[in-house]
Description:
The complex is a heterodimer of chains A (107) and B (164).
Chain A: H1 4-12, H2 15-25, E1 29-30, H3 31-37, H4 42-54, E2 58-63, E3 66-71, H5 73-98
Antiparallel strand pairs in A: 1-3, 2-3
Helix pairs in contact in A: 1-4, 2-4, 3-4
Chain B: E1 13-19, H1 23-30, E2 49-54, E3 61-66, E4 69-81, E5 85-90, E6 106-114, E7 120-127, H2 133-144, H3 149-157
Antiparallel strand pairs in B: 1-7, 2-3, 3-4, 4-5, 5-6, 6-7
Amino acid sequence: xxxxxxxxxxxxxxxxxxxxxxxxxxxxxxxxxxxxxxxxxxxxxxxxxxxxxxxxxxxxxxxxxxxxxxxxxxxxxxxxxxxxxxxxxxxxxxxxxxxxxxxxxxx
Amino acid sequence: xxxxxxxxxxxxxxxxxxxxxxxxxxxxxxxxxxxxxxxxxxxxxxxxxxxxxxxxxxxxxxxxxxxxxxxxxxxxxxxxxxxxxxxxxxxxxxxxxxxxxxxxxxxxxxxxxxxxxxxxxxxxxxxxxxxxxxxxxxxxxxxxxxxxxxxxxxxxxxxxxxxx
Lengths: 107, 164
């Protein structure tokens, strides 16, 4: 059985899948719309979307007769949270440093 | 072109902090002396980081010197306006690889504003995070998993304290 983490790596290891994901950042699209923009067949696009969905990177929802694919907001939110934590840590370290005068006696 | 961007995707991370230092000193420590405070846990090379360097000019490189390895690039200076503003491209993906194309990386904008009483306010904005969407979940998983960044953090934490 493929693990969740392996699914992630697999999902990101393909240039077309990365390109599809980048395209979806601009807004949700249906399979047909994606297929018209990529030099691969519609079934191939569907297959890529299945992999991305399994890896939790995209979500889909019905919109009338179409199915729209979008970047998973939860994935983006976790990315924001990651950077939020990182910058909190970095700026705290920066503040401590910038407010500490270098010891003058040390040569 | 109409923008139909999912509002969540492009929300920048914003942070502000006030430091008891002049604008000039705050800018200098943030850039020229970045090595004295940059978290040692955040580093894309495969071997321990020796020194963080920011080249003080537009187009300058941001990189880590590594122990026993080649320099490891992680950014490019986009705006260099001492002592007021410093913008750099964040060219690291979720698998710790360098992103060559600046247009595919996020951007960090740092502004330094003098405050009454001699302090300086530092306003930081990390934007275009959507460009890292492909890594979003990978980052979360890696951070969460004990074998991912968590392990790296532990590894580096044990080596860190030689920095002064």
